[in-house]
Specification:
The complex is a heterodimer of chains A (562) and B (135). Chain A is an alpha/beta fold and 562 residues long. Chain A has 22 helices and nine strands. Chain A has two domains: 391 residues, TIM Barrel (Alpha-Beta Barrel); 64 residues. In chain A, helix 14 links the parallel strand 8 and strand 9. In chain A, helix 14 crosses helix 15. Chain B has 135 residues and is α/β, with parallel strands linked by helices. A five-stranded parallel β-sheet of chain B has the order 2-1-3-4-5, with helices on both faces. The chains are: A alpha/beta (562), B alpha/beta (135).
Chain lengths: 562, 135
Amino acid sequence: MTMFDEKKIEEIKRERQHWEKTTLPKWIRQSPECKSEFRNHSGMLIKRVYTPEDIKNLDYMRDLGFPGEYPFLRGVHATMYRGRLWTMRMFAGYGTAEQTNQRFKYLLKEGETGLSTAFDYPTIMGYDSDHPMARGEVGVCGVAISSLKDMEILFDGIPLDKVTTSMTINGPAAMLLAMYVAVGDKQGVSREKIGGTTQNDNLKEFFAQKLCIFPPKPSVKLTTDIIEYCARHLPKWNPVSISGYHIREAGATALQELAFTLYDGIAYVESTLERGLKVDDFAHRLSFFFASHSDFFEEIAKFRAARRLWARIMKERFHAKNPRSMWMRMHVQTSGCTLTAQQPLNNIIRTTIQALAAVLGGTQSLHTNSFDEALCLPTEEAVRVALRTQQIIAHESGVTNTVDPLAGSYYIEALTNEMEEKAMEYIRKIDEMGGATAAIERGFFQKEISDSAYRYQTEIDEKKRIIVGLNEYTIEEEECPIELLRIDPKVEKEQVAQLQKLKRERDNRKVKEVLEKLHYAAEKDENLMPTIIEAVKAYITLGEITDVLRKVYGEYKELIVI
Amino acid sequence: MRTTKKIRVLIAKPGLDSHDRGAKVVARALRDAGMEVIYTGLRQTPEQIVETALQEDVDVVGLSILSGAHKALFPRIMELLKERGLMDVMVFAGGIIPEEDVSEMKKLGIKEIFGPGTPTETIIQFVLENVPKRT
């Protein structure tokens, strides 16, 4: 049943037309509108004013419903932040495992409620710290983890049954998850209690984050291994964090981010169903990760539309029965690419707006960027301000007092509908192409994102889009007003020395034996998780495991789309 | 002089990071400005970049890096360019390169370093004004 009766809508329509002929022209004559048309980042035309006409077909129970119930538009939990605040989870990692362990402890002391690990590029690409490709990169953009030894230091003094940990790792996700499980075993924490998330979204790597090691097919196989393993052995682990964040940061619009992310989700559901699991065995543990940009209402509409669209896909396309299979739980990160190196303190305000959008959009977990991140990895001071931003929203703003406070806004609901409809159009288009892998192979996502990125830059260059402090309100000859974090080159030397010592001192006969076993398991296309756990426990390194898989699967060669 | 031959530019991504948004936007802007642009793709070693510069007979190389490994990689690239006789190629760079490293990088022979937020027009003009003359 729709929310407005037809007669009322007709009356509003008449009144609007009257207003457009009488009141409006007078105002426009007096103060003309600044632009001939107003659009959001996704290119949607924004009306001057929204009325019940714009949501005349909205059916409350069908389209909104109650929080904690299908279609989950209003939130995945019935009480949302009245019951429990979102997890404040700051992405952190630099230098050695000791340094990052200290940063973790600092953040926990300052009130963050979950950990999130940033690995350095060699780790992300499956290279040990002593690999030639790792030169100059060790510990620079994240923490260097080459073996279980490093992982033990990283979580030293942090009980894994008391905190959940997110790990931004994709190609080598199985290896890092195995190390985490091994640390848990050493701490005596049972596998039922280990909680956290591996990003493990390999599809988006091919067109967004682009940290690919293996070709698409074995990459999806590895993602699916983890989903399957967790469904059977790690009930509190989110095996995959289906990520729009990187799609957005690479240049996509909010709409493209929404559509492409959900499509990747569809692909993982399909690949896991092929293993013989039932949708309700694993779908409740799939989690999502989105960006929050600065166009406030567009972002809120995106988060809300994402929840409803995913619920509908799970119900209608995959015939899930358990409502939890239909819920979309999400982590949100404020947008790194909106930060400016110019007048960096302004970034605090940008982050605040974006974080508020994420909270009004109903996120389960949030990372807020630090004001210095257009220049360097964050200093302790910068990261504290970022965390405080979340705490101020949580405890001072009052937005947590009620669930989904913007529901019913003509604008928000109309925009939520438009987001969902247009995302569905993309999904149908990708279906017609033959799915996510086919779309990657023909460069579809890459081209869409690249075009949006170029358009965005052109708008900034032509001042059609104002970025404060960058192309307007600038300061000439600006001196950098903040302290920057630098990584000491000694980190690399020490890390390499430690690693080589480990390689000498471990049981190298065992190493050889387990690596051969892994090679065999990979060739037989078995689920590799159990063997990888055995391998990391024998202190076989990340690079050694990845090398075996490189031999079996080959390496991905980038498809260049400008 | 330059009426018949287009300026040839190699946009290269050394380092392990995958932030190619800037590199691609610059590649496209230079192409739209009438230049021939070759983009290497991600994670190129100094050897690969210099080999491509040689094979493609470029006038200009633009290096983009956001991983922080510029201090390890740029000196090697500049050294190899010299070794391979490409001293005349004009090199510029962009990405996240801290202010305090800029003069050190310029001493290596890198002509200019563009930080985040640089308008593409600035880069186009820079290339047009600094492209070496072919003999």
